[in-house]
Write a structure and sequence with these properties.
- There is one protein chain.
- By secondary structure, this protein is of the alpha/beta class.
- The chain has a single domain, classed as Alpha/Beta hydrolase fold, catalytic domain (Rossmann fold, 3-Layer(aba) Sandwich).
- It has nine helices and eight strands.
- It has helices at residues 44-50, 78-91, 104-115, 144-150, 159-174, 182-196, 204-207, 240-249, 266-281, and strands at 2-8, 11-18, 27-32, 54-59, 97-102, 120-126, 226-230, 253-256.
- Strands 1-2-4-3-5-6-7-8 form an eight-stranded mixed sheet, sandwiched between helices.
- A hairpin with a 2-residue loop joins β1 and β2 (11-18).
- α2 crosses α3.
- The relative contact order is 0.17.
Amino acid sequence: MERYVDVAPGVRLWAEDIAPTGSRPGEPLLLVMGAASSGLVWPDALLGLLAERHRVIRYDHRDTGRSTAAFDEHPYGITDLAGDAIAVLDAFDVPRAHVVGMSMGGMLVQLMLLDHPERLASATLFCTGALPLSGAPELPGPDQALLRLWGELDDPRDLEGEIRWRVEHWRLLNGSGTPFDEGEFRALEERVIAHTGRHDPVVAHAHMDTSGLERGAELAGVTVPTLVIEAPEDPAYPPPNSGHLVRTLSQARMVRIPGMGHTINRTVTSPLAAAILTQTTHTAAPA
């Protein structure tokens, strides 16, 4: 079931509620995607595996997919995006859910853990880093090739040029630990563009207010069962970041998916689903 969720005056989000395919009702599971990415970036194959046990909910962030794209008229910050995730749960009458966050989505889930712990039955974070923490060790940042490509984000491109740029972006994000299938990611971006109805790049998230993230010290108090999945070939958040995140959370546990980079390609879909489902099925059911 698809619907729109009003999250602020003049701002609405596209969201989709996928009914479980198994015989059980299915506890709700919310997927929170990374920056500049539509909810359609969650692969159908992954959704299918998760829907065997869960009612799965995904959505488009502001300025992505079919959600309102009007950053100049309605500027917002990253903390607003965390609030949007709670608003999506409210819209689907979900009092408590398992929540999975990738990349920026992992940052948003950390804010949810701090501000709305009663709404999370469990949390799974991957391809992300910890909220900033004073005195934390210096950690490696994104690969230089990625930084150079991000510098071209808002360069003018026609449809074919934009698809090629996005595929190259996925190639760099994928890393060298698993095979990169250009056709797989070209098809993904063609679906995203068809869903969105336009091909212009998403630049709003690069300009939004990032204040309110300096809360890493609070993560030690998180008691919601939390899993961190390490992607050893991630060029955006290299492996020391996941270890630091686990230590910052203090009560989290970590699993590693060999070869995984900053993508959910066919090679890692099954082990990723297995890790998520192990986390959700070993925690208390939502009240």
